[in-house]
Design brief:
Chains A, B: One of its GO terms (molecular function) is fumarylacetoacetase activity. The structure is a homodimer. Chain A is about 15% helix and about 30% strand. The first copy, chain A, is built from ten helices and 26 strands.
Chain lengths: ~425, ~425
C-alpha cells in the first residue's frame, strides 16, 4: 500500500493523474490525489463534476490506464484540472460518498500502458562526471551540443514505484582478477540507480509526422512528468555496449513514480536552462523562453531503517528541453505513441552531493561512500532501498519512486 | 498489389502465414499462400477444415493480425499446417468458393502487431567487414564470442514490403569539408540497407521468466521468420551512436516481408552453424545440434528497370542461433511479447559478393560499385529499389522484402 509521507507534494495546485485500486474498488482506475486523499475520477464524472467539458467520453475514468485520457487535447486536461480544483476547494466532504480513499488504503499501478521507451542523456554534468569516473577524463559525446542523444530502452520492464528489483545476472569483466581480463557470467556486482524525470506522451504524433520543439508542449504531446529510476548494471552494460549501446545492463527494470504531474501544475516553475545553447540548432530543435523546469530532485538510500541522501540536484540542469527531446525523436518520422515514455537521462550537478548515480558518487566504484548507518557502498547491495523524490515548489511534487534490490535468481531457471 | 514473381517459393511444403486484403475482401485477415494463390483461412475454418484441432478459437483467422494465432502452442500451428497441407493437396478447386484470390489481386499488410523490436548483430563476417570499412582494421566487439550483442530498435516504424522509405534528415559530419570537422543537418548522404532475417515471437515469455536457448524453438516462442531490411543512415548513425548506440540513424524505417515462414517449413533445412563456439557459454546460452538454418539470401538493387545483385549470402553464417538470441534477450527478465521482432543483424559472408550492406560493398562509401545500368553507387540514391529475397530450398522461400527510396521531405514540416 502507498506511503503517506509526501502529503505536502499534493496540494490543490498539483492534482496529478494516476491509476489506483483499493480493497473496496479492486479494479484499477483513474484517480487524482489531494494531500493524502485519493479521489476516484469516475464517480466525480458520473456526478456531473465534468459536465461543462464537452469532449470527455463517458466512462473514460473507469479505464485501467490513463492512455485514453492522455490522448485528449491539452485543453481538455486543463479543463478537467480546473473542474477538479473547483470541486476540491469546496472541501472533500462535498464529494460524492465513496469517491475517496486514504492513500494508505490504495495500491498504485502503472499509470499508462507504455508502448515504447527512449532514454535520453541530457545532463552535461552527468556526462562529464561519468566520463571522469569511467575514462578518467572529462569528455562529452561528440554530438552532445548538436542533438539530445538517446537509446531505445525496453518498455516491457517499466514498473511502478514499490515493485522490487531483482539483481540481474549477466556477462562482465571480472575485476577481482587483476592478472588478466576474464569475462564471467554472474550476478551483477555493479548495480546502480539513475535519478531521472520521465516524459509521458499524451497526444500522439503519427508515424511520418515530425514535431518542432516549440510545439511539443503546447500541442499536448507531453501529458506530464514522472520520476524515473533507470536501474543500471554498470558491469553488464560496460561489456555489452560497444558499439551498439546498452541492452541487458538496463533491460531488467525501470521504475517510475505513480502520479503523472501535468505541465499545467508545473507551469509556475518554468525556468531558463543552464546556459545558452552553444551550437546553432536547426529550426526543428529551436526552443525559446523558460523551457526548463525548476524541479528539485533527491535520491536516498535506505538500509537497516537508516536513510542517507546520496544526491540532490535540479532538473533545470538539463541542457536539452522536453520539447527538444520530443522533436529530435520524431525528426526521422518515427512518431510518438500515447503513453510512451522519454527519460531525460541522469540529472546531475557539477559538485559533490549533486550526483544522480552511484557511478558518479563512488567514481566508478573506486571510492566507497559511507552511509548513515556506518556501512559503505561502492554499488547497491541486496536489500538496499532506493527512493527518488522530486518537488517543484510549495504543494507541487512527485511523491516518491522507490525500489528495493532483491538477490539474483538462482541459476537453473525454468 | 503483390508480385507474382516468387511463386516457386510457396509450395505446399511452405504454407507461411500472412495478413491480406483484396477489393472484395477489404478487411485485412489471416491467409496462407500456395504458389500464386492466396488462401483466406477464416473461410476454411468455417468450412470445418480445422475441425480436428481442438484449441482453435472461433473466428481467430478473421483477425487483422496474426498475434492471437501466433500466441497458441507450437503444436496447434503444426496441426493447422497439416490440415492445410491435406486440404490443398486435394486441389484448390476443392476449397470453399471465394476463399482464394490471385496474389496480384491482394494487398499484403504487416503480419503482426509489433510491440517491441530488438536488432542483434550475429554475423561475425559482417562485424569484421564493417570494422574494416569504418575503422580500417579487422575488429570484433569485445563481447562478440560471449553473447549475441544487440540494441533495442523502434517498433513503430516497422513496415511491410512495398512501403516506400523516405530518406531521413539528420545530423552528421559533412565529409565534403576536408579542412575541418563540421556537423550539418541535412538529408542523409549515406543511406544503406541491411540484409537480415527477423524472428517473429509466438508464445510469449512473461516478464521475469527466462528462456534457455534450447527451449526457445521447441516451446513455440519462435513463431517463424521473415526477411528484414534494417535501413540505416550511416552518417546519422555514425555521429549519434557514441556511446549509446544507434537511434535516428535506424528509427526511420525497417521493412519486413509479409509472409511468416514457420520453423516447421524450415525444419528440413537445419544445418550446423559456421564454426564451433569459441568461448564456453553458460547453460542458458547452450544450444546444440544443427541449430542454424540453410537459408540463401540475396539483395538486389533496381534502378531504371535494371536489377543488379549486390550480395548473396546464407543465414548459416550466423554465429549465434535463434534460440540463443531469444535466451540472451530474456536473461535479465524482460520477457518476450507475441509479435515482437528480433533481427539477426546483417548477414554477410567473408568474400566479395557475399556482403549484406552497401557499407561493406563500397568499403564505407570509398569504392564505388558499378551497377548493371552503368551508374555507380556509394550509398543509395532517391528512386533506388532494394529487394531482399531468401529461400531455403525447393518450394520453401520468403518471397521478397522490397522498398523504394523517396527523396527527403522539404524542411518546414508541419
Amino acid at each position: 500500500m502507498s506511503s503517506p509521507e509526501y502529503s505536502h507534494h499534493f496540494s490543490v495546485q498539483n492534482l496529478p493523474f494516476g491509476i489506483a485500486s483499493s480493497r473496496t474498488r479492486p479494479s484499477p482506475q483513474c484517480a487524482t490525489r489531494l494531500h493524502n486523499t485519493v479521489v476516484f475520477l469516475a464517480e466525480l464524472h458520473e456526478h456531473g463534476i465534468f459536465n461543462s467539458i464537452a469532449d470527455l467520453p463517458t466512462g473514460i475514468f473507469k479505464s485501467p490506464t490513463l492512455n485514453t485520457f492522455a490522448a485528449l487535447p491539452r485543453s481538455t486536461h486543463t479543463s478537467v484540472r480546473h473542474a477538479l480544483q473547483q470541486a476540491l476547494q469546496k472541501g472533500l466532504a462535498t464529494l460524492p460518498a465513496g469517491s475517496t480513499a486514504d492513500i494508505t488504503e490504495v495500491e498504485m499501478h502503472l499509470p499508462v500502458s507504455i508502448p515504447a521507451y527512449t532514454d535520453f542523456c541530457c545532463s552535461k554534468e552527468h556526462n562529464l562526471n561519468a566520463g571522469r569516473a569511467i575514462l578518467g577524463r572529462e569528455t562529452l559525446p561528440p554530438c552532445f551540443y548538436h542533438i539530445p542523444i538517446a537509446y531505445n530502452g525496453r518498455a516491457s520492464t517499466i514498473c511502478v514505484s514499490g515493485t522490487p528489483v531483482q539483481r540481474p545476472r549477466g556477462h562482465f569483466v571480472d575485476k577481482t582478477i587483476t592478472t588478466h581480463k576474464e569475462v564471467v557470467y554472474a550476478p551483477s556486482r555493479a548495480l546502480d540507480y539513475e535519478l531521472e524525470l520521465g516524459i509521458v506522451i499524451g497526444n500522439p504524433v503519427p508515424v511520418g509526422q515530425r514535431l518542432k520543439a516549440r510545439e511539443a508542449e503546447e500541442a499536448g504531446h507531453v501529458f506530464g512528468l514522472v520520476l524515473l529510476n533507470d536501474w543500471s548494471a554498470r558491469d553488464i552494460q560496460g561489456l555489452e555496449m560497444i558499439p551498439l549501446g546498452p541492452l541487458n545492463g538496463k533491460n531488467f527494470a525501470t521504475t517510475i513514480s505513480p502520479w503523472i504531474v501535468t505541465l499545467d501544475a508545473l507551469a509556475p516553475f518554468r525556468s531558463p536552462g543552464p546556459e545558452p545553447q552553444r551550437e546553432s540548432v536547426p529550426p526543428y530543435l529551436q526552443d525559446s523562453g523558460d523551457y526548463a523546469y525548476d524541479v528539485q530532485l533527491r535520491v536516498e538510500l535506505e538500509h537497516t531503517a537508516n536513510k542517507s541522501v546520496l544526491g540532490e540536484t535540479n532538473a533545470n540542469e538539463l541542457y536539452w528541453s522536453l520539447g527538444q527531446m520530443c522533436a529530435h525523436l520524431t525528426s526521422t518520422g518515427c512518431g510518438l505513441q500515447t503513453g510512451e515514455v522519454l527519460g531525460t537521462g541522469t540529472v546531475s550537478g557539477a559538485a559533490e552531493g549533486e550526483y544522480g548515480s552511484l557511478l558518479e558518487v563512488t567514481k566508478g566504484g573506486t571510492v566507497a561512500k559511507k552511509l548513515g548507518d556506518g556501512t559503505e557502498r561502492r554499488f547497491l547491495e541486496d536489500g538496499d532501498v532506493v527512493t527518488l523524490t522530486g518537488w517543484a515548489g510549495d504543494g507541487v511534487g512527485f511523491g516518491e519512486c522507490r525500489g528495493q534490490i532483491l538477490a539474483a535468481e538462482e541459476e537453473g531457471w525454468r
